[in-house]
Amino acid sequence: MKKIFLTLTISIITAITCQAQLIHTSDFVKVALPDGAYKLNKQQVDALPGQSSLVKMPEALKSPYTYNIHGIILNMNNVNKDSINNNMLKKKRFLDELAGSFKRHGNNTYTSIVKNFNNNHALITNYIINNTGYYEFYVQNAAKTLTLAGKMEYNKADAAKAESLLNDIINNVQFTK
Amino acid sequence: MKKRYPKSTGTIFKLCIVLLIACVAVIYGCRKDISKLDDNPTATITDPKIAKAKSWYETNYSKPGGKPTTQNTNAVGDDFDLSQFFSPNWAAAKNYARFNDDVIEMPMDAASAIGLKVGSASQSNSRSSVLILKRGDTYKAYVMTIVGYPEYLNADTSKLANNSYGKHDANFSGMVYYTTPQGEFVDGYTYKNGVIKGQLVDNYTATTTGGQAVQSITPNAYQAIQVCTAWYQKVGEVWVYLDTQCHTEVIEVPDPSTPLPPITPPSSGGGGGGGDSPGSPDPCPPQGTVQSVKDGKVGNALKVMLLNPGDGGFPPPGGGGAPCTIKPVEDPCDKLKKSKAKFADSFNTQRNAAILTQPGPHEFGSDLNLTSLTSNTYVNTPITTDSRNDLWTPHFTWNSTDGYTVGSAHKHPGGNAPSPDDVFLIFQNLLNPALTSTGASNINFYKQNAYATVITSTATYVITVNSTGWGQLGSLYANFDNDPDGFDNNYLSIARDYKIANNVDDATATAYALNKIFGDAINMYKAPAGTTSYAIAGIDQDGKLVVVPCP
Predict the structure, then answer these.
(1) CB-CB under 8 Å, A24 with B496
(2) Can you name the residues that pair with B176 across neighbouring β-strands?
């Protein structure tokens, strides 16, 4: 009987503590998110520190999907299909020019890169403001017809964890069309 | 009695049962939570559009605790979540198209009726529906509540069902009231005999007297009245109070039939949270608006949509925007006429063209210095560069030798519209000792004539400051000065997200972001490259950037 109870106890504990893996799915894309990810509802999103900027983001512009992954906030947009903005290098120039203001203020943390992940390629920007790190990413399929945009916010101290997480996410992007 | 199983066999059997349970538990606990929209059960719904909308709705407005209980009632303040008190009746959902939206409209489930009390009328005089609007891939959900006035209902509340989002009775008198599913106020309209008479808004700015605010402005006069609405839930035959919100109703006057007197919020149940404080409406936040763009024309400084949509239905939720511009502000077209004499004269036009032709990826620019305060002629200043892609440094002067710097023009090689830094340059010059030491009349001259021109390969942008906008600009500058990176990150995020959400080009996204941040403090004028056909670039009532020519 001891063995039975032991087996039963271990199984129940495993079932309770085992973290469910979340898969982000919307039209044209599927992304397996790391263990521990959970989706935030609107009230939780509104309560995030990043929502207290001077001019609030209009509701219509907010990312429809927000996740918390071990304290790192991940936002995902709907996939843009056949976007007029599907040129990654042009998009990079756009973001570089906008971020030029950081450099003018003496903040030289901004970087941007276009690189390949599996069959997709991605534009990634990264910068730090007031101890908060920001990743923005655009993952595009090989045919350049589908683009998934997202961004991550993290504590500067979690930079290594955020980078690893970003790579995981981008590697896991699967366009379904 | 013979044992059915020997002892050893029984143990093995029990062990097998336990292992089976354990396996099921492990598999269940560790299964992937696939949040694919299409996977939600929609067995009773045959229309795939409705099934998908249901799935989206239930993903975003779930009820963690299941059906609400009486313990949930009397929730007030920021914790109030209306969606916890009703369930949409998906079986009665209707799907149709309106205003470029795919509309799904359905009544509430009869078992979870909610009511809206306005004035002294009973909450039974209201009927709430769930409205889901899908545009492109984006869903938005609202609770639409129709309140009938006694003169319309004539004691027959079944008439409420005659009205829907897409069509209302021709003689409808009452109110349509939009909130998010959680109960966050969006906007609303009051009707008299089928005609819109007023709009419910938040964030209204006006001088109040005795609970009412009256402000006369040309050409229309508007009256603002505080209106409080209270949510109730029907439990059996009893209405249970949930929450109160107060808004401002803006009515064009003279209106002999002001429909809604303000009501006193119920004092029981700890109600009263979740809305504006009575008698002290919130000040308008800075936000970009084209002053009263109606039918593609720029009118006076009003942004209240008192026009019927024209198809027999109610205005779309949020369609009226936040009419924070119910205050006399400078007509941007008047400002354009006055300012064009300076920024669109032949010298400026030639200088803009010369800057645009400068080769390479760097920014080039030129100061625009008047030769005197009484003429429209300019000093022939040089075109300069810092040899950088993201920076051009102007040089302000205010004397009869070097000229009086009222403006500057520089190129954005990447094609973006003016940036916050470009706007703040105008404000920084106002603080320059070379100007401030010359006295009030010089400062006023600068304020009336200052501008910043940004040239791209496709367009020329000019920024001027509204005569009433210097204070707001100063306040924004203080924010910027305190945290320039945070300020610019706000701008960057808005531009980026507008671009993603609306699939627009760089120039449109940045022009939107600038308008969104600086709002009424500035005017943005845009002309096709090489021309002086300036039009107003601003944000319309739908929250989109529009370029509107002046009459």
Answers:
(1) no
(2) B146, B189
Residue A124 has pLDDT above 70, yes or no: yes
Question: pLDDT band for position A155 (50/70/90)?
Answer: very high
The pLDDT value given to residue B403:
97
Q: For A21-175, give the CATH class.
A: alpha beta
CB proximity list for B422: less than 8 A, separation 6 or greater: B410, B452, B454, B463
Contact B503 A83 (CB under 8 A): yes
Partners of B195 in the β-ladder: B192
Identity of the residue in A30, A61, A95 whose CB atom sits nearest the CB atom of B497: A61
Partner-chain residue, chosen from A60, A93, A136, that has the shortest CB–CB distance to B414 = A93
* B contact residues 382-411, partner A, Cβ 8 Å cutoff: 389-391
Give tens-digit pLDDT for A129-141: 999 999 999 999 9
Which residue of chain A comes nearest to B412, CA vs CA? A97
Confirm if A71 and A159 have CB atoms less than 8 A apart.
no
- Where does B221-289 show beta strands of DSSP type E? 221-235, 238-253
Interfacial B residues in 264-303 facing A (CB < 8 Å): 285-287
Domain segments of chain A as ranges:
21-175
ipTM of the complex: 0.87
B312: left (phi over 0), alpha (psi -120 to 50) or beta: left
Tell me which residue in A15, A54, A103 faces B28 most closely, judged by beta carbons. Answer: A15
Cα B330 from Cα B188, distance rounded (Å):
27
Q: Report CB contact under 8 Å: A22, B18.
A: no
Do A26 and B15 make contact, defined as CB atoms within 8 angstroms? no
Q: Cα dist. B6→B2, B12, B18, B20 in Å?
A: 9, 10, 19, 21
* Burial of residue B268, with CB atoms counted within 10 A of its CB: 0-12 exposed, 13-18 middle, 19 or more buried: exposed
Distance between CA atoms of residues B391 and B365, nearest Å: 10
Least confident among A4-13, A59-68, B335-344, B492-501: A4-13
Backbone angles phi, psi at A109, to 5 degrees: -85, -15
Strand, coil or helix: what is B306? coil
Distance in Å, alpha carbon of B551 to nearest chain A alpha carbon: 30
Q: Compute the distance between CA of residue A54 and CA of residue B324 in angstroms, rounded to an integer.
A: 17
User: How far is it, in rounded angstroms, from Cα A25 to Cα B457?
Assistant: 40
Binary contact (A60, B543; C-beta < 8 A)? yes
Model confidence at A112, in pLDDT bands (50, 70, 90)? Answer: very high
Cα–Cα distance, B457 to B125 (Å, whole number): 59
Domain residue ranges of chain B, discontinuous segments joined by +: 70-283, 332-484+522-529
First to last CA, chain A: 53
**Residue that wins the pLDDT comparison between B255 and A13:** A13
- Number of Cβ pairs < 8 A linking chain A and chain B: 166
Chain B residue numbers with beta carbons less than 8 Å from the beta carbon of A62 are 497
Strands A29-32 and A37-39: unpaired
What is the structure's pLDDT at B408? 97
**Is A85 in contact with B499 (CB distance < 8 Å)?**
yes
Q: How many Å lie between the alpha carbon of B543 and the closest alpha carbon of chain A?
A: 9
pLDDT of residue B20: 63
pLDDT at B21: 63
Instruction: Report CB contact under 8 Å: A21, B32.
Output: yes
A57, A63, A130: residue with CB nearest B485: A130
> Is B497 within 8 Å of A101 when comparing Cβ atoms?
no
Q: Each residue of B239-271: pLDDT tens digit?
A: 888 888 777 777 655 433 433 333 233 333 322
Q: Which residue from B494, B22, B24 is spatially nearest to A56, judged by alpha carbons?
A: B494
Ranges of residues in chain B whose predicted pLDDT is under 70: 1-44, 63-79, 202-224, 251-310, 319-330
